[in-house]
TrEMBL record:
<feature type="domain" description="Neurotransmitter-gated ion-channel transmembrane">
    <location>
        <begin position="137"/>
        <end position="406"/>
    </location>
</feature>
<dbReference type="InterPro" id="IPR018000">
    <property type="entry name" value="Neurotransmitter_ion_chnl_CS"/>
</dbReference>
<feature type="region of interest" description="Disordered">
    <location>
        <begin position="250"/>
        <end position="271"/>
    </location>
</feature>
<keyword id="KW-0472">Membrane</keyword>
<keyword id="KW-0407">Ion channel</keyword>
<dbReference type="InterPro" id="IPR006201">
    <property type="entry name" value="Neur_channel"/>
</dbReference>
<protein>
    <recommendedName>
        <fullName>Neuronal acetylcholine receptor subunit alpha-7</fullName>
    </recommendedName>
</protein>
<feature type="compositionally biased region" description="Polar residues">
    <location>
        <begin position="253"/>
        <end position="267"/>
    </location>
</feature>
<dbReference type="InterPro" id="IPR038050">
    <property type="entry name" value="Neuro_actylchol_rec"/>
</dbReference>
<keyword id="KW-0812">Transmembrane</keyword>
<dbReference type="InterPro" id="IPR036734">
    <property type="entry name" value="Neur_chan_lig-bd_sf"/>
</dbReference>
<feature type="transmembrane region" description="Helical">
    <location>
        <begin position="192"/>
        <end position="215"/>
    </location>
</feature>
<feature type="transmembrane region" description="Helical">
    <location>
        <begin position="131"/>
        <end position="150"/>
    </location>
</feature>
<dbReference type="GO" id="GO:0004888">
    <property type="term" value="F:transmembrane signaling receptor activity"/>
</dbReference>
<dbReference type="Pfam" id="PF02932">
    <property type="entry name" value="Neur_chan_memb"/>
</dbReference>
<feature type="transmembrane region" description="Helical">
    <location>
        <begin position="390"/>
        <end position="414"/>
    </location>
</feature>
<dbReference type="InterPro" id="IPR036719">
    <property type="entry name" value="Neuro-gated_channel_TM_sf"/>
</dbReference>
Length: 416
């Protein structure tokens, strides 16, 4: 054993960064003339990082040892162990796992010199521990994406449907900034986690746009929009059948009519007056008043002939009036004396009934217009429900497929 000052010292350093090995360390000289020199020190080197699979990535960093001055005939470097570097004393790191440090002896020939130049290259293979990133970035991102999907189950009238989508979009922006801070600034590769976050952010942004379309459809009415035939065909016929959706209260016949029983005659004191068969239509509003008001149109259609139409209510009133007069007075001169009064009374009743019918027809028309407007509004609301259900299915499938694609495309998923 001797000191380094009394021995010839080779100029062997790392090729990446200068290392000062001037610390006085003993050199072991063996009987065969070989020397064992182990200077203490911390070797620092730089290597290129591939972040394509971040945070499921493996990195390979090379450290090259050789002489700048002496060729292979003057200085022959040999590996002490064919397995590479000794990692038995490696201290476990919280972020990286050391998989191995294989070494290789290289002989290089240059054009300037016929002698070989020898170097020893160690490859440090490390793997990132993904447990931290999995539970602090990926799992929250999946939960936020699920909340964005569940936003399609909120009713449009709640008022929080759009606010939820915007809040989720802001949350994903915060998580994406956290990912950007943990990665090296490089434009050579796009990390896997960044790709996943961008896909989820695109999905959430698309869900916000879809929510705006849904709210637009939901709040449309007959005064502002007319549903085009292709919208009615797609959103009210085709898609509900594909999505297995049925409108509440709608039977198999759609807007079918059902007949309602009504008395066919009215029994007066002395005479039975028969009514023609008038079918009452069941309105979508289920209103008894609407059924009563529809009788006017049915009477007018059933009694309309080639001549001047005679209102049925006035005819019916005169018949009942004359019948009551005959019953009370027994006919004779008394009835003839009151004929003029009866005629004037019937004329006055005809006028009053005509005015009443006019008002009833106006009310009936207004109720029909309201029913039509409500029907158009309900059509738009149902179309919004169909779009809501369609977006729920599409974005759910997109989230599941994107998550599975990211997890299964990675070299490894979880390394604790």
């Amino acid at each position: 054993m001797t000191f380094i000052d009394s021995n010839w010292f080779r100029s062997t350093t790392t090729a990446d960064e200068g290392f000062d090995g001037t610390y006085p360390t003993n050199v072991v000289v063996r009987n065969n003339g070989s020397c064992f020199y182990l200077p203490p020190g911390i070797f620092k080197s730089t290597c290129k990082i591939d972040i394509t699979w971040f945070p499921f990535d493996d990195q390979r960093c090379e450290m090259k040892f050789g002489s700048w001055t002496y060729d292979g005939l003057q200085l022959d470097l040999q590996l002490q162990d064919d397995g590479g570097g000794d990692i038995s004393n490696f201290i476990t790191n919280g972020e990286w796992d050391l998989l191995g440090v294989p070494g290789k002896r290289n002989e290089l020939y240059y054009n300037c010199c016929p002698e070989p130049y020898i170097d020893i290259t160690f490859v440090i293979i490390i793997r990132r521990r993904t447990l931290y990133y999995f539970f602090n970035l990926i799992v929250p991102c999946v939960l936020i994406a699920s909340m964005a999907v569940l936003g399609f189950t909120l009713p449009p009238d709640s008022g929080e449907k759009l606010s939820l989508g915007v809040t989720i979009l802001l949350s994903l922006t915060v998580f994406l900034n956290m990912v950007a801070e943990t990665m090296p600034a490089t434009s050579e590769a796009v990390p896997l986690l960044g790709t996943y976050f961008n896909c989820i952010m695109f999905m959430v942004a698309s869900s916000v746009v879809s929510t705006i379309l849904i709210l637009n459809y939901h709040h449309r009415n007959a005064d502002t929009h007319i549903m085009s035939p292709w919208v009615r065909l797609v959103f009210l016929t085709w898609l509900p059948k594909i999505l297995l959706m049925h409108r509440p209260g709608q039977g198999n016949n759609g807007n079918s009519y059902s007949s309602t029983s009504r008395p066919s005659s009215v029994q007066t004191d002395r005479k039975t007056i028969n009514f023609p068969d008038v079918e009452l239509k069941e309105r979508s509003s289920k209103s008894l008043l609407a059924n009563v008001l529809d009788i006017d149109d049915d009477f007018r259609h059933n009694y309309r002939g080639g001549g001047t139409p005679t209102p049925l209510p006035a005819t019916f009133f005169r018949a009942v009036y004359r019948n009551n007069e005959e019953t009370n007075n027994g006919g004779g001169p008394r009835l003839q004396e009151q004929g003029i009064v009866s005629s004037h009374t019937c004329i006055s009743a005809d006028y009053e009934l005509a005015m009443i019918l006019k008002e009833i027809r106006f009310i009936t028309d207004q109720m029909r217009k309201e029913d039509e407007a409500h029907s158009i509004t309900r059509d738009w609301q149902f179309a919004a429900m169909v779009v809501d259900r369609l977006c729920l299915i599409i974005f759910t499938l997109f989230t599941i497929i994107a998550t599975l694609a990211v997890l299964f495309s990675a070299p490894h998923i979880i390394v604790s």
